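Structure in, sequence out. Go:
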């Protein structure tokens, strides 16, 4: 039975596997795509949505899409 790996062992094994399957460049590109962000999304989301209901959120989405479409047309 395999022992439970430490976080350091998991990271090292992951880097080895990525490098062997993707090459150095592919491994670096993978890491660029999977950077860990900062903050607490769940808590921040509560603040963003504090006074929002489904209808107002839907209206914001529609407005955003229309603005995006208008910018492409320019």
């Amino acid at each position: 039975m395999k022992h439970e790996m430490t976080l350091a062992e998991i990271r090292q094994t992951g880097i080895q596997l990525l490098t062997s399957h993707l090459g150095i460049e592919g491994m670096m590109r993978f890491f660029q795509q999977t950077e860990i962000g900062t903050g607490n999304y769940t808590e921040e989301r509560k603040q963003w949505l504090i006074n929002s209901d489904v209808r107002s959120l839907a209206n914001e989405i529609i407005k955003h899409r229309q603005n995006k479409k208008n910018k492409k047309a320019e």
